[in-house]
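The instructor's notes for this session suggest beginning with a concrete chain rather than abstract definitions. Hand out the sequence below and ask the class to guess, before any prediction is shown, which regions might be ordered.
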Amino acid sequence: VPSPKERNQVGNKKEQSAKRLAVLRCKERSPKVTALEDVECQSKKAMDEINWRIAEWFGEPDLPS
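After discussion, reveal the predicted structure:
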């Protein structure tokens, strides 16, 4: 029967191993993360184009100096 200290060391090793696996999984690029990043990029491009068109139609706003 392992002592409480030995059980704690085993628990710590398992916890460290689980944390290491979580870090490795986060570094890998999953298709879902890539798809989300693509959507965010498309959204930003669309907003940039809308802002450009608004500026083209109405001109630059007169901002107070």
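Then share the key points. The longest helix spans residues 31-58. The mean pLDDT is 69.
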